[in-house]
Amino acid sequence: MRSSVTVSSSVTEEQETARRAAAARLLEAHASGRPCEPVRDLVGDVESAYAVQSLLTERWLAEGRRPVGRKIGLTSRAVQRQLGVDSPDFGVLFADMAVPDGEEIPAGAVLQPRAEAEVALVLERDLTHERHTVADVIRATAFALPAIEVVGSRVRDWDITLADTVADNASAGVYVLGTRPVALGDVDLRLAGMVVERRGEQVSTGVGAACLGHPLHAAVWLADTLARLGSPLRAGDTVLTGALGPVVPVAPGDVLEARIDGLGDVRAAFAPEETEERA
Amino acid sequence: MNRLAEILDEAALTGRAVPRLTDRAALDVPAAYEVQRAVIERRRERGETLIGVKMGFTSRAKMVQMGVDDVIWGLLTDAMLVESHLDTSGLIHPRVEPEIAFLLDRPVRNPADAAAAVGAVAVGYEVLDSRYENFSFTLEDVIADNASACGFGLGPWHSPRDVGNIGLLLEVDGRPVASGSSAAILGDPVRSLTAAARLAHAAGIELQPGWVVLAGAATAAVPLPAGAHVRVSGAGLGHVEVTTR
């Protein structure tokens, strides 16, 4: 699998200004809770989009947010085709994005929320090689957990291209992890069935193989890509490996339960209605 | 009814698609099932025997697409069972989809009894081949056409177990082309089995020991080309293969 992410060469002042404008637009949307216009007019290629994402990350780190891992996006062939890309993307997870299993997700916590069920990996070793094998990833993984990722776009009406979503921290919102760790040797992630239910009715179904053929393949891509960019995966990191089935639009009051065969279950509960404006 | 059944039976025998029956005759659902049974009766007259039932429209997406809120069913005969090879040259426009199959080991006397009658479970596949032009039909058409049933294959039988959320993968020539969870079948294939028992009960047919119930597809059906090797795997259930020519 080739990565479409390369290390930056030289950037003109004009490009730098445009990237800062894009970052400012997304940060304003994040802070105000009001979606913004797309940023593709300012961003251009994928490399620039990741540079914008880095500006967001820098800002959030300066605000004291604690990074706890990465999420992988665009792992389904269907979504890749829809955006006309042949590679996944990634974003940064922060500690304040983790919601305990079943606890309420406040209204407005995620802009234009949508949910998807994923396999989460928690690492116990760094992954710093230029190229990793599946064996490296298996050896570095302490355990897997079922997860629900609530993605959200700071871009109005989810009107996104690859550049928009990459710049927007891969549309990361919040996430919920299950609480029973499972060793990789005890689960067949490729053929693990996935179902998301709302009030007993299945609203999304899928399987491990739908995530780039195998969730571990996605993790290898991420490890390689981050090592090349100079910010490798580290022991303790959480990796959300990507959706196993179609994304589910969510409405206030929804309670979604995701079950991944062999990994267990996890719930995302959305607050009934908008109760307060975001600061 | 017999004339309509003859049209569909001839289409299957000759491999030539026909226009929709509803274009020429008014059919409601009960009448459509009568046509279906007449089609099966013609097969029985040729020496085929009933060995099970198949369920259709078991995914929400399909129900919405067809504008229906219940499943449909069709009947399986021994001639439809595919062993390891399938000659597609006599078929119209075959498609294949991954399935969960139940083997009954005692009669199902009522719908509440269905799950307890399961003697074994397996991963399987169904070959669909609508006898209608362009695979296009109304609800009544597809019921009359025995729910597009054409053939099916079964992996190794396993003791009954929870098959509510197992991954299914369909590969053609070693490449994955469709994948999903058995939860796409009404949330749990056992619900499809119960629905089969209900429909059979209403039709005055008793599901028999030794019969197979194909519970429904975990993914959309994909075209089944000639000269292909198809494998369907189910988590914990092994796999089933077929080679077409």
Tell me about this structure:
The complex is a heterodimer of chains A (279) and B (245). Helix content of chain A is 27%, strand content 27%. Chain A contains 7 helices and 13 strands. In chain A, the strands form 2 sheets. In chain A, strands 1, 2, 3, 5, 6, 7, 10 and 11 form an 8-stranded mixed beta sheet that branches. A 5-stranded mixed beta sheet of chain A has the order 4-13-12-8-9, with no helix packed on it. Chain B is 24% helix and 31% strand. The chains are: A alpha+beta (279), B alpha+beta (245).
Number of self-contained structural domains of chain B: 1
Beta strand count of chain B: 12
Structural classification of chain B = alpha+beta
Specify the number of helices of chain B.
5
Give the chain pair forming the largest contact, with residue counts: A-B, 23 and 20 residues
Distance between the termini of chain B: 34 Å
Radius of gyration of chain B: 17 Å
Order of helices and strands of chain A: HHHEHEEEEHEHEEEHEEEE
Number of DSSP E strands of chain A: 13
- C-alpha geometry of chain A: globular
Largest pleated sheet of chain A: 8 strands, mixed
**Biggest sheet of chain B, open or closed, and with what strands and sense?**
7 strands, mixed
Chain-averaged pLDDT of chain B? 95
CATH topology (level 3) name of chain B:
Fumarylacetoacetate hydrolase, domain 2
Proper CATH architecture of chain B: Alpha-Beta Complex
> Any idea what the radius of gyration of chain A is?
18 Å
Low-confidence stretches of chain B: none
> What do we call the CATH homologous superfamily of chain B?
Fumarylacetoacetase-like, C-terminal domain
- Any idea what the shape of chain B is? globular
Quick overview:
Chain B: Residues 94-243 form the Fumarylacetoacetase-like C-terminal domain. The complex is a heterodimer of chains A (279) and B (245). Chain A has 279 residues and is an alpha+beta fold.
